[in-house]
Amino acid sequence: MEKTILHLDMDTFFVSVERLLDSRLIGKPVLIGGVTDRGVVAACSYEARAYGVHSAMPMKRAKELCPDAIQIRGNSATYTNYSEDVTNIIKETVPLYEKSSIDEFYADLTGLDKFFNSYLMASELRQRITRETGLPISFGLSKNKTISKIATGEAKPNNQIKVDLGYEMPFIAPLSISKIPMVGEKTQQTLYSLGVKQIRTIQEMPMELMEKVLGKNGVSIWKKAQALDNSPVMPYNERKSISTERTFDRDTIDVIKLKGILLAMAENLAFQLRRGQKLTSCVTVKVRYSDFNTYTLQSRIPYTSADHVLIAKVLELFNKLYHKRLLVRLIGVRFSHLVEGSYQINLFEDIEEQLNLYHAMDKMRDKYGDRVVMRAAGMEARTISRFNPFTGEPPPLLPNRRR
């Protein structure tokens, strides 16, 4: 039985939320992100995109391209709340869904055509989301994730497309290679230099040639161009978490040491989130005293994987939880309610230099080990145990190098 996969994507999600809150923004070019010249564009409206503006662009450059654009700092907590509203509607409607980011979803509707018309069901779901939240949304429906995602991109803004079985390759053939998931700017330029601009050309190329040019990535891109994608819809599970604990050889009351270790824990776990393209919306701090009494305190936050946001929240929770003059036996940090997401840091407030710094630090950690670069305040924590959020197995205490 061929699968039936639905891909849903909110249209310019952040901008759409802002327009719900202020109708005067409708039809105008809007930039969301850092409001200073050193800020970065987190999202932009279609009107701004017409001037060449795109996300992750320096705000100064965006304003040069579109001087009449309205700048808004944005509120990640508000966007998270609207995302949860949409998630709840999808959860009530489909049997199996995957939340791949704050504004993007997959659903497996395989076999439902025996009882319902899957396209009609998807259409009704889209209409319900718009009716109950006021937000525009588009979808693509096909036999796999790749084709459905491409179809959604073609359907935008605020529309829907079904790609009938057997018509997948003709549907994507005339499209730009940039439409294929995994084809970034660098890969696109490499293929352009070879005269490969349309997906049709990749469809006609032997797989071995793509492998020779781009390695394993070339094989994956070739398969997607052939409409081959067996990746399953992964059930969304809010209970996934990643955590770390430290038990002391000797109970301690050294607050500076405790905070330094907590800082290092939060920093390291934030890197693990970014490396796994994950975001967290729940932070928990755990303290066990010498009498073995254990206390935890948690807080819900907007989805993030930013060091400075998570470190600040961890230290805030510890300050509320810690009872002075009591010896501490164990401390721990846990990030939960994980979702897939590439919003690696808070684009609404951070500046371009901070984005570049995170990127550089993550590259060093990825190459030489996750403890090769750290904040000075966290130097006390030389070993940090982590639990894999997917397998539950604790990895080695020593830094891993990506194989």
From TrEMBL:
The record marks F14 as: Substrate discrimination. Mg(2+) binds at D9, D103. Binds 2 magnesium ions per subunit. Residues 5-184 form the UmuC domain. GO terms for cellular component: cytosol. Its cofactor is Mg(2+). One of its GO terms (molecular function) is magnesium ion binding. Pfam families: IMS (PF00817), IMS_C (PF11799). Keywords: Cytoplasm, DNA damage, DNA repair, DNA replication, DNA-binding, DNA-directed DNA polymerase, Magnesium, Metal-binding, Mutator protein, Nucleotidyltransferase, Transferase. The keyword Transmembrane does not apply. It comes from the Bacteria. Its main location: cytoplasm. The keyword Thylakoid does not apply. Belongs to the DNA polymerase type-Y family. This is DNA polymerase IV. It comes from Roseivirga echinicomitans. The gene is dinB.
